[in-house]
Amino acid sequence: MKCPFCGHSDTQVKDSRPSDDGSAIRRRRSCPQCSGRFTTFERVQLRELVILKRNGRRAPFDRDKLERSLGIALRKRPVQAEQVEQLVSRITRQLESLGETEIQSSVVGDFIMKALKGVDEVAYVRYASVYKDFRATGDFAKFLGAEGLDEPGSGER
Does the reported pTM lie above 0.70? Predict the structure, then answer.
């Protein structure tokens, strides 16, 4: 594994253990050249997934992009980093278990929406506002009404 600090190509594993949800191996590494320390994760990849975008473009599935999207929706919300990692793992497994190598981006979006709805309603609405391309406050009102989220006292304060 190449050192992210100095680029040295031979780093040493100092510690290995399963991640919290058991879906990956977490490895602590050290670079003998610059003494830098960093963590890597080793995961099972069942198949190469390709995402079919709305504009017809194809892009390889990027787990980090999924994690960033969830992170943006969950920013400043009471959700732990471990929960985000579990969401990413769960959504990735769901996508892999579809049995398809090419998946519509709308399917990915739907999985994310469903996962966020179960974790944090504010993050769910944040993600929906981008995913469903809200243009005005009326779009929010319509969405919240359809989801049954606009009832007084239905959300946390």
Answer: no
